[in-house]
Amino acid sequence: MKRKAAAALLMAVSLAGCVPTNIIDDILMVEAEGYDYLGNGRVYGTVTMPNYVAGGAQGAGGGGVPTTAAMMWLAEGATYDGKSLVDKFQSKGQRPLRVGKLRVMLFDKEYAKHGLKKQIEFRNRDPDTARDLYLAVVDGSANKLLSGKYQTAIPISRYVSDMIDQNQNQNYPTNDAHDVFFSYYGNYMDPFMPMIKKRGKHLEMQGLALFKKDKYALSIPERDAFVFKMLYEPFNQGVYDYEFMPRKHVALRNVNARVQYRVRNGNGAEPDIKAKVSIEGQVRQAAPGTIGEVPIEEIEDGMEKELEQKAAEMVGKFQKKSIDPLRLGDRVRSFTRRFDGDTWQDRYPNAHFHCSVQIDINQTGISR
Length: 368
What we know:
Elements: H1 2-16, E1 28-29, E2 32-39, E3 42-50, E4 72-80, H2 85-88, E5 97-98, E6 104-108, H3 109-114, H4 117-125, E7 134-138, H5 142-147, H6 156-168, H7 177-185, E8 192-199, E9 202-212, E10 215-221, H8 225-232, E11 239-245, E12 248-264, E13 272-286, H9 290-293, H10 296-321, H11 328-335, H12 344-347, E14 352-363
Parallel strand pairs: 1-5, 2-6, 6-7, 7-8, 13-14
Antiparallel strand pairs: 2-3, 3-4, 8-9, 9-10, 11-12, 12-13
């Protein structure tokens, strides 16, 4: 036993010695990668990283960024689909490039249509890839987005990741690399990613890019992200704008939204899927004179019908494209004994989806 213990200890020490030590001042930490598809299996890659050099520009650390991160470094160039950008650009760096702090990976829409299989599988195998990084599709050029100038002192990688993160705390569904990988490799589900766009010196969320396994298939606009999220997961702090009359709006902030699913005839030719959504909310803002003149019950009823209709139309589009970003197939499986997964892909477009929404507005603010 003593010999075995000593051998194990010696092996552990030997393996530990094989791991290279990285000092933050001596490396370039890649925080963002961008991919634009060129065709014929080639992409135009872009990487950005804060250049941690002592003696950064005085006072350049606004917004919580250390002064050493004031100077950004960028590398770009054409390479082959699936090749590591860090390995590709090592020869351009004045210091070794490392991916231990990768925050975002961006793909232009053409690359997403071509298919992200190589990138997803490469990143899933890479032990240096953090599972909390964000993958997103760019409406436009990923290179132009990452190399652009913005009205912020923080690095572009943090600008993008912070924007995605704060939106996922509101109307957008939570979705990091772990979720994308889970949906890609899982059965009866498909991945999705946020879609972003550069507008001048700002970035903005454009909605969701939906995939059929690794290929971009469909997008839903920003205004429908709330509907997607209410069918996908429990959440709060989302805001829904309801136009109850022409040019008259009520903005509802949900305090608590949750969804429950029920399934019947899960192995039948036409499964029956029911989603029951409950929303407790507050009136965030309303057209002048609305509250008090229009009964709150009338606003609740109208908003419920609109959300139910939008939910049914959204799922209908998914069924026509044979994509399942809401993981309805997995929900049917969980309700069905001896689920017939082999035929699900053929039965999914014929499934009957019903959504009922119950809204309870418990705060309306000052009515006059």
